[in-house]
Write a structure and sequence with these properties.
This protein is mainly beta. The chain contains 2 helices and 32 strands.
Length: about 500
């Protein structure tokens, strides 16, 4: 069947119009497909209390789109690298995607984003790209479980110098304590530079570590002698005042131990033993005595005297060891004439001493007695002194005597023309004594027995009366002789 011409022409025009519209649609369709979009979502990081906003940018065109004029509030997004941000092209009906991350802290109520998309393939620009995310829901860190005392972990430093010891103990990051934990630094007097007992507390410092005070620094003085220093988990009530044989110890509570409570803190060993001298103060005070003995006062009374001192005393054949307790003193007497005294003790230079006469000792006295026939010199030595040697000289003659304490010695010379005697004491630091004799009239030996002015001897008287007179005269003669001797003998005392 054939169509008439008008109908054929109308069909031809309609077909051409449809083909033209189809071609136009083919040209216009790609331009209308340029589109990008953005969406966001937020999550709360409960560990830090931070909102993490994830923005997803999409591209529905088969060529890459460059992001321009990017703006975000309240913070900027994190970029993986410097340079332009690009939304990848779509592939197989799947839009290309670019993901950006934004961290928001604080009290912000929303996060926003806006940008332009530019396709370099044809210069098309999509300017209407924006979105926002609601942040009104609170975001706080999750409550960290606390750690019971004795289970927390720490780290520390520890050191000792001549001036003292310092330690710092800190709670590890991320650890929350249920209650505070005390830590103590303590120093001791020690008998040796290595561990030995007994030990006596010298100084201590205690601090407590909690969630507000996560670190403490402790300082103690150390004695100027052998010492031990310990850093341990515990408080003042746990300090051992005196460390004795078989007594309590800090053990593995010391920080830095390989096991036990002390192993919870990482760092150097929290203990020290050392020193350069003993913790005693031995002293000797020698005193010479007037009787020739030496008195040694031995003491152990210094500030650091915490241990007994053994003193060894030697002098000739004399030897004695004396133990003096801390804060005490003892006295040793060296016999007279023993010779040089030597005293030795740990922590003290050797002491040597020789006896010498004290200045306040009593001195010998000299007594001089003389008459017309003799000169007698007596030397008396008082009690409580050493024997005295005296050299006595009179008229060119000398005699030497040794006088014991509390005794006397007498020397006699024939009387001569010399008017004094000299007494020297070689062992004493005194000047010689010049003892002057009493002047006597020894030329007149007494009157005769006659009477009146007659040169002739009188006649003897006889009879009873004469006998009585003769007897009385004899008595008077004896008395006169005695008085004559007494009158001519003098006794003079001299003191050295």
């Amino acid at each position: 069947m054939k169509l008439n011409s008008p109908l054929r022409r109308a069909a031809t025009v309609l077909a051409g119009a449809l083909i033209g519209l189809g071609g136009a649609a083919a040209v216009i369709a790609p331009a209308s497909a340029h589109a990008s979009n953005v969406s966001g979502a937020a999550v709360c990081d409960t560990a830090t209390g931070t909102r993490i906003v994830t923005w997803t940018l999409t591209n529905d065109y088969p060529t890459d789109a460059t992001v321009a004029d990017l703006k975000t509030t309240p913070t900027e997004v994190e970029k993986a690298a410097e340079g332009n941000l690009v939304i990848p092209k779509s592939e197989r009906r799947s839009d290309g995607q670019l993901t950006l991350t934004q961290k928001v802290t604080g009290d912000a109520k929303e996060a926003t984003i806006s940008f332009k998309s530019i396709w370099s393939s044809d210069g098309y620009v999509d300017q209407d790209n924006s979105a926002k995310v609601d942040l009104s829901e609170p975001c706080t860190p999750a409550e960290t479980p606390c750690v019971e005392a004795g289970r927390a972990s720490f780290h520390h430093t520890f050191g000792v110098t001549e001036k003292g010891s310092t330690a710092t103990v800190s709670l590890d990051d991320g650890v929350k304590l249920c209650e505070g934990e005390p830590v103590t630094l303590v120093s001791y007097f020690a008998p040796k530079p290595q561990f030995a007992v007994p030990q006596y507390k010298y100084d201590s410092d205690t601090g407590s570590i909690d969630n507000e005070h996560r670190s403490v620094t402790l300082n103690v003085d150390v004695p100027d002698c052998n010492t031990q220093v310990d850093l341990f988990f515990g408080g003042e009530d746990d300090i051992i005042g005196e460390i004795t044989e078989g007594g309590p110890r800090y053990g593995d509570k010391k920080l830095g131990s390989n096991n036990g409570p002390g192993s919870r803190s990482k760092g150097p060993q929290g203990w020290y033993n050392g020193g350069g001298k003993g913790c005693q103060t031995p002293a000797v005070e020698p005193l010479s005595q007037c009787d020739g003995t030496v008195q040694l006062n031995l003491s152990n009374n210094g500030e650091i005297s915490r241990y007994a001192v053994d003193f060894t005393v030697k002098a000739g054949d004399f030897t004695q060891t004396v133990t003096v307790k801390p804060g005490k003193g003892e006295t040793v007497t060296i016999p007279a004439g023993s010779g040089t005294v030597t005293v030795t003790a740990e922590g003290m230079d050797d002491i040597t001493y020789d006896w010498k006469a004290p200045e306040d000792c009593a001195l010998p006295t000299v007594i001089v007695e003389n008459d017309c026939d003799t000169v007698a010199i007596t030397v008396e030595n008082p009690e409580g002194v050493t024997p005295a040697t005296a050299k006595i000289t009179y008229g060119g003659k000398s005699q030497t005597v040794t006088v014991a304490a509390g005794k006397s010695e007498k020397v006699t010379f024939d009387a001569g023309k010399a008017t004094y005697a000299t007494v020297e004491f070689p062992g004493l630091d005194v000047e010689p004594i010049k003892a002057t004799l009493e002047k006597l009239d020894c030329d007149n030996g007494g009157g005769g027995a006659g009477g009146g002015d007659s040169d002739e001897p009188g006649l003897p008287v006889t009879g009873p009366v004469a006998g009585s007179i003769a007897g009385g005269a004899a008595l008077l003669l004896i008395a006169g002789a005695v008085l004559f001797v007494i009158a001519r003998r003098r006794k003079i005392r001299f003191t050295a």
